[in-house]
UniProtKB/TrEMBL annotation:
GO biological process, one term: L-phenylalanine biosynthetic process
Compartment(s): Cytoplasm
Organism: Cellvibrio polysaccharolyticus
Assigned keywords, A-Z: Amino-acid biosynthesis, Aromatic amino acid biosynthesis, Cytoplasm, Isomerase, Lyase, Multifunctional enzyme, Phenylalanine biosynthesis
Pfam families: ACT (PF01842), CM_2 (PF01817), PDT (PF00800)
Gene3D superfamilies tied to this protein: 3.30.70.260, Chorismate mutase, Periplasmic binding protein-like II
Essential for prephenate dehydratase activity, annotated site positions: T269
Top-level taxon of origin: Bacteria
Cellular component GO terms held in the UniProt record: cytoplasm
Domain annotation ACT: ranges: 288-365
UniProt name for this protein: Bifunctional chorismate mutase/prephenate dehydratase
Length: 369
C-alpha cells in the first residue's frame, strides 16, 4: 500500500503550515504594536505637558529598514521586505500619533506615491496645489512634514523646491527615491483608435517623447499642471488619453492602455522630506547646505577645497541665481555624511571664512531604496 501523499493532502499540509505561520505573524505584530504604545507612554511621562513629542524618528526607521534588508534571505526582494515593514511601522506609529504629511498634489501624483512609500498608508497625507503651499503648511505647524520633488534623473533639478529653501527655516529630514513608470491611460468612454490629444505634465511628455513619436506622432500633446490633473480630464473626452502613474489610474478609475512608456528605463525622481526637527545620525546619511560665494576669482575653488581636503563625497552641486544683490551665486550642495561626523564638522568650520553666507539645510538618512 502506497504511503505517498496525494496532491490534495500535500496542499492541505502546506495550507495548515501557512495558517500556523500567519497566527505567529499576527501575534508578533500585535506585540510590536503594544511596544510602540509603551514607547509613547515613556515619552509622554518624561516630557513637560506643553512639550512637542517627536513620535516619528527618521533615523530609527532607516536603521530598522536597513537591518531588515541585510537579514533578508529571500525569496521576497529587499524592496518588498522594506515595504512590508514600512507599513507595519506606519500602523504602529499611528497608534502613538498619526503623522500628518503635506504633499504636492492633487491626488494621484508621484509625490503622493513618494509620501506613501516613505510614511506608509497609515499616515494622514494631504494634497496641496503648489510647493509653496507645502512649505507653508509645515512652517505653520498644521502638518508634521512635507514631501516635495527635488530632482529627476532625466529632466534635472526642480528649481522651485530649491528656491523655497532660501527663504525658509525648514530642515530636510529625509529623502525618497522613486522609480518613475509612465503609463498611457484611457477612460471607459475613450475611442482608443481615435486618440488625437494626450495630456500630461510637461516633464512627463518630455520623458516619453520617443515613445509618443513612434506610437502617436499626430496626437496633440497638451501640458497640464500635473499628471493627476491629466488623468482627471479624461472622463469627459472620448478622443483623449493621459500619461500618468498607476496611482492616478487607480484613483480616477482609468484603464492602462500601455505601461512603462518612459524612454529611459531607469527614470527616477528624488523627493525631500521637509520638517522642523534636527535628525540624529542613522549611520548612512547625507547633508545638504546652501552657500553664497563672493564675486571674486577662485571663489568656486575656495568653496570646494575643504571637501576635497577632508575626503568628503559630493553627491550634487546645483547653482541658482541670487535673490538679492548680495548673493551673486547660490550653490546647493549635497554630500555624504552627517553634521555630527568629525570630517563634516571640520568642513563646516572651514567654510564660513571662504563664503559670503552658509546655511545648513539638514543632515538626514540616505534613501533606503
Amino acid at each position: 500500500m502506497s504511503t505517498e501523499l496525494t496532491e490534495a493532502q500535500k496542499l492541505l499540509e502546506l495550507r495548515n503550515r501557512i495558517d500556523a505561520i500567519d497566527d505567529d505573524i499576527a501575534r508578533l505584530i500585535a506585540a510590536r504594536a503594544r511596544c510602540a504604545q509603551d514607547v509613547a507612554e515613556v515619552k509622554k511621562a518624561n516630557l513637560p505637558d506643553d512639550a512637542r513629542i517627536l513620535f516619528y524618528r527618521p533615523e530609527r526607521e532607516a536603521q530598522v529598514l536597513r537591518k531588515v534588508m541585510e537579514q533578508n534571505q529571500g525569496p521576497l526582494s529587499n524592496e518588498e521586505m522594506a515595504r512590508l515593514f514600512r507599513e507595519i511601522m506606519s500602523a504602529c506609529l499611528a497608534l502613538e500619533n498619526p503623522v500628518k504629511v503635506a504633499y504636492l498634489g492633487p491626488e494621484g501624483t508621484f509625490t503622493q506615491q513618494a509620501a506613501l512609500k516613505h510614511f506608509g498608508h497609515s499616515a494622514v497625507v494631504l494634497p496641496f496645489p503648489t510647493i509653496d503651499d507645502v512649505f507653508r503648511e509645515v512652517e505653520s505647524g498644521a502638518v508634521n512634514y512635507g514631501v516635495v520633488p527635488v530632482e529627476n534623473s532625466t529632466e534635472g533639478v526642480v528649481n522651485h523646491t530649491l528656491d523655497n529653501f532660501l527663504g525658509s527655516n525648514l530642515k530636510i529630514c529625509g529623502e525618497v527615491e522613486l522609480r518613475i513608470h509612465h503609463n498611457l491611460l484611457v477612460s471607459d468612454v475613450t475611442s482608443v483608435n481615435n486618440i488625437s490629444r494626450i495630456y500630461s505634465h510637461s516633464q512627463s511628455l518630455a520623458q516619453c517623447r520617443n515613445w509618443l513619436d513612434a506610437h502617436y506622432p499626430k496626437a496633440e500633446r497638451i501640458a497640464v499642471n500635473s499628471n493627476a490633473e491629466a488623468a482627471r480630464r479624461l472622463k469627459g473626452e472620448w478622443n483623449a488619453a493621459a500619461i500618468a502613474g498607476s496611482l492616478a489610474a487607480e484613483r480616477y478609475e482609468l484603464k492602462i492602455l500601455s505601461e512603462k512608456i518612459e524612454d529611459q528605463p531607469d527614470n527616477s525622481t528624488r523627493f525631500l522630506i521637509i520638517g522642523t526637527q534636527q535628525v540624529p545620525a542613522s549611520g548612512v546619511d547625507k547633508t545638504s547646505i546652501v552657500v553664497s560665494t563672493r564675486n571674486e576669482p577662485g571663489a568656486l575653488h575656495n568653496l570646494l577645497e575643504p571637501f576635497h581636503r577632508h575626503g568628503i563625497d559630493l553627491t550634487r552641486v546645483e547653482t541658482r541665481p541670487s535673490r538679492s544683490g548680495v548673493w551673486t551665486y547660490v550653490f546647493f550642495i549635497d554630500f555624504s555624511g552627517h553634521v555630527d561626523d568629525d570630517a563634516i564638522r571640520q568642513v563646516l568650520q572651514d567654510l564660513p571664512e571662504r563664503v559670503a553666507d552658509l546655511k545648513l539645510l539638514g543632515s538626514y538618512p540616505k534613501a533606503v531604496l
